[in-house]
Design a protein that fits this description.
The complex is a heterotrimer of chains A (about 290), B (about 400) and C (about 280). With about 400 residues, chain B is of the alpha/beta class. Chain B is built from 13 helices and 18 strands. Chain B folds into two domains: about 200 residues, 3-Layer(aba) Sandwich (Rossmann fold), CATH 3.40.50; about 150 residues, Rossmann fold. In chain C, β1 and β2 form a beta hairpin. Classes of the chains: A mainly alpha (about 290), B alpha/beta (about 400), C mainly alpha (about 280).
Amino acid sequence: MVSGYLITIFITVIIYAMLAFSLNIITGRAGQISLGHSAFFGIGAYTSALLYTKAGFSFWISLPISAVVAGIVGALLGIPCLRVRDDFLAITTMGIVFVIEAIFLYIPFFGGAMGIGGIDLPQWFGREMQKTEYLILILIVFIFLLILDRRLERSWVGLAWSSIREDEIAAHAMGVDIVRFKVLAFTLGSAIAGLAGSFYAHFLTFIMPQNFGFAQSILILCMVVFGGIGTRWGPILGAIVLGILPEISRPIMEYRTFVYGLLLLAMMRFQPEGILGSESILRKIFKQILIR
Amino acid sequence: MGRFIWKGSLLLIVGILLLGISYANAQDKIKIGFFAPITGPAAADGMSAKNAVELALKEVNEAGGVRGKKIELIIYDDRLNPQEAVAIANKLIEKDKVIGVVSGSYSGPTRVTAPIFQKAQIPMVAGYAVHPDVTWDPKERRPNDFCFRNGFLGEIEGAAAAEFAVKHLNAKRISLIFMDNDFGRAISSGFAERAEKLGATILTKQMYKFPGEKDFRPYLTRIKEGNPDLIFAAGYYNEAASIVRQAKELGIKAQILGEEGFDSPKFLEIAGPSAEGVIIATNLDRDDPRPIVQNFLANYKKMYHEDADMVGASSYDAFMILIQAIEKAGTDPKAIQKALLETKDYNGLTGKISRFVQGEVVKPVQIQIVKGGKFRRLAVVDNPEVITPPVKK
Amino acid sequence: MLIQQLANGIAIGSVYSLISLGLTMVYGILRILHISHAGIYTLGAYVGWFSFRLVGNFWLSLFIGMIGASFSGYLVERFLYTPILHMPRIAPLIVSIGLFIAMEEAFRIIAGPHTLAYNARIGIGDLSIGSFHLTETQILILIVTFIILIFLWTFLTKTRIGLAMRACAQDAEITSSFGVNVRAIIAFNFLIGSAMAGAAGVLIGVYDNQVWPTMGSIPAYKALAIVVLGGLGNIPGTVLAALIVGLAETFFIGVLAIPFPRDAVAFIAMIIVLMFKPYGLLGKA
């Protein structure tokens, strides 16, 4: 019988993995810097929370709705965003997080600073789900997403994205509809983040605006960068390592955030491809071992 | 497909390995859990709470422990993040198997974990977190009867401050300024309601962003315009110090009345001479002659080279309340809870608790004034109408 | 009251301009979003506070704070940014963010999480005309900012190095082909920009009488919004934007009394202006 504590950790890690994975679609696959990812996480969480607590919708209905809502907002915000490049994009996405967090904080409908509580685990077969079952559910959804990602990568969409990522101007010259594919990346990434948000809300049973602020965006970015932007497993590895780090680093809990900062700094300065990137130390070590 | 499996299992192994490392061993002591924002935006208060509780731990263990056994305090840092708090709560229950918990944290983490401890039937005493949902389940509409709060409910503290302001300071025109979080809103609404009931007029109500606001001059300039008798300001020590200083700079003459957030040596240090004459509602009475108070103040100073504050005192008390329940009832969490429910006339560091009402204390509110650069006793509000928490249905 | 709020707004806007200028100068020449600039601002405040404790003279501590900030800005440029300029833009941005986070934590670990009181005696005295009250620290801010801005303007328009800096901001390659030592110019740029941030840190430390590890968090984002609002790389635009934001914030709270999140004002102003002028108030393509 696996302890509840371990299950809690696993669930948290998978949700983060989903977030890192979805950010990777925007940043890694399509090459668009987004510092505002936690905003969509929040939109998904709040949508689910509100539907459940105010309108009595069951989890099974609010889950897909949250994804759709987050995706739509992502698309809407994506359109003006994508007229600008790089730096402006980074700043604008930063601005989005602040504005959305402010909305959750100041409009009483969203519960204000006190957030929304009383969100339960989903019901099925007439009873509340157990944490273990919830974990399996999330795992299944996540595996499904991974398969989807694999399909996409090999499809025309994936090719278009990598051409945009490598050289936007050239891609445009070749006839790739930049805007359409960028918006697609944004929409998909936001929708999945919204999905994660819904899972998160029902797991935590209580959400506050602070959970979805800029710091959270940075944490997700950290996971993607650490693992390797653009790789499929990199962000997941990043989510696992940085998700479990708070657990094993409790003895050195004072220095945790400092380590995160240094990690980001060092990774980008010396290993920008991430741990699983093509030039990384890990791969070099593996190659050495394999050559022998 | 093969690579998929290989990479997938590699990640799984990494994950399990990392978790395996984090597992610790159990021992035969009385285990009590504790969490506070030791790092992160509230690190100062977190450290204060931790220090105070560790002092209490030392005192208890040096006196022989409880029922012959030593206490082991299991400390976690929640970084003021509710998510971490949830993981901590689960860990305390499942892994560390504690029989009681003390919260040295703010409302966010305390409130998320309250239902978890309630469900697991492990008693928790919150030192100073103010949100009503700590002791009350809003969805089931019933009290979390395993959760207790040593500090005041925001509404109560505000009402007590208003009681004092109107009845003793004769304030008739009052301006409010408070931070925009659950505490600020609760305490200011409690204040406004009581003040208006007693016949005073609230001129302005301004809410400032928390955390982070440092420049209160725009707010204060507006307050000055209305020429109030009294300003009721809510904030933690940083904001409090800024408000008080800047008010003086701008030439505002109205009396400033604050709350427990002002109750810290840091407030005195940062506000400097402009703190003189400020009055606050709080739960720590420095002039309380009882040895428990004076000893705490002296010992804390000796051990940590700083003056103690409200956060530390409240957390110390929360720990001690739990200890006295264990002393009385043993190590069965349900028995401990029963003992807590039956607490009567408990002489705490932060005041005498007559009893708990749905987990909330019935305890007089201390009014302190800054005189000669230190907090001194000014008055006590013990009007039962004001300090008795409402019974919710 | 309106005049008082005007004074409040200009004071805070002046400090904003000091921080934002460094940011815009770095962007102008390296096209990097230098988020850790806010860390240098905080460093200036801490160094200033610390030196004030040692020497007891405010003006000296201001000077030392600026030097400390200036030097650390140079280190960041030399060892962190320049080596990775060839990488895609996301790299220096993330390095900057990582550094900023690490710096904030380093301050907390070294100096403690508590707020430190700057408590400096400045010796200018307040100014009161009727009900209008300009406090000592507000006068200080206005004077220091004014001096620095005059100095900067003179430097950029009347000296050769200044000319070289402006040229580099326009087009670094061509400028270097004229024999200008671009690397030195970049370093210089950081030195000056960081010094100003350091000054801002000390000034705020004295204005609020508080120095604390995360004091750079809000300026990090706000300065960014201000810089975009004014026009990335545009110096007069940045000063203008900073003053506008300072006044707008004060106005919203103090005069209109709208319970508005103060820090959102900068971003909202930025978004509104960008809709009509996509390169900022005074920016060019």
